[in-house]
Amino acid sequence: MIQYPQHLVLPGKYVKNKIKEFLDEDIPNGDITTFGTVKKNVKTTAVLQAQQNLIFAGEQILNHIFPKSFNIALFYKDGSFVKSNEIIAKIIGSAAYILSVERVMLNLIQRLCGIATLTQKYSDIAKPFNVKILDTRKTTPGLRLFEKYAVAVGGGFNHRLDLSSGILIKDNHIKAAGSIPNAVRQIKQNKYPFPIEVECENEFQILEALECKVDGALLDNMPPDVLKKAVKLIRNHPQGKKIFIEASGGITLDNLKKYVVTGVDAISIGALTHSAKGAELHLEFI
């Protein structure tokens, strides 16, 4: 079965470099409002508080956005359920520094908590049926690793990280190559060290892919009844039990229950990252 590396840990150096990039964007020439109103030696205590029920995904952000001189008390781990109004963290240190990084910190953590919270809603429905909820490459440019991390924290699973780390032959690849056999043949000639997954839109393409001895089939935009027949077709093939079957296209929280009973191994949901609403959080001085 196809399985890609899971991004449950963000490299510290990566996080620090990204945060520096975000702060450079927001503070290109100093935070003039803060510098003009708050003295450098003023210290304060701030709390990060949930304003809705959520799954927390921000522990590794908080650990890298503040200098070592700060005292940070974190009350929840990544992946924890946090009730509305609960205090997630208490931050003690320079008031001016907190004011200057507040927006970047909140923007990022709200985004990641929103993704983790939405992912868990999908995963809770799929898990009893042993179906994995997968992310896609439909991520915010520059935030992909953060967003895939949030999916993993929320109980989902990571599909390939990028175009260099996995093979997924999609409809336009097939059109450009001329056919599924042509596309698979050329891939195999290059001897890439990755399993081969092919997007299939109908029974004919499924049979072509099976004859090419692929490792996975992405069944795209199939209604549940059609999807169930397609899964049966694959499983009845001599190599069918080893084939990774993924469904995608038009699958939402409202209709997910109809898809998890079709026999697929996984369902990929682009909405986890491209349509997740940021969670409601705020930072308050106390």
Report on the architecture of this protein.
By secondary structure, this protein is α/β, with parallel strands linked by helices. It has 2 domains: 12-120 and 277-285, Quinolinate phosphoribosyl transferase, N-terminal domain (Aldehyde Oxidoreductase, domain 3, Alpha-Beta Complex); 123-274, TIM Barrel. The protein has 11 helices and 12 strands. The strands form 3 sheets. It has a 6-stranded parallel beta sheet. Helix 4 crosses helix 5 (144-153). The longest helix has 32 residues, at 95-126. The mean pLDDT is 96.
Give the structure's gist in a few sentences.
The protein is α/β, with parallel strands linked by helices. The protein has 11 helices and 12 strands.
What are the salient characteristics of this protein?
single chain; 286 residues; alpha/beta; Aldehyde Oxidoreductase, domain 3; TIM Barrel; 2 domains; six-stranded parallel β-sheet; four-stranded antiparallel β-sheet; 11 helices; 12 strands; elongated
For the record, give the distance between the C-alpha atoms at the N and C termini, rounded to a whole number: 52 Å
The helix count comes to 11
User: How helix-rich are the residues, as a percent range?
Assistant: 40-55%
Low-confidence stretches: none
What's the arrangement of strands in the largest beta sheet?
6-11-10-9-8-7
CATH-derived topology of the largest domain: TIM Barrel
* Order of SSEs: HHEEHEEEHEHEHHEHEHEHEHE
**Total strand count, please?**
12
Radius of gyration: 23 Å
Mass-distribution shape: elongated
User: Beta fraction of the residues?
Assistant: 15-25%
Class by alpha and beta content: alpha/beta
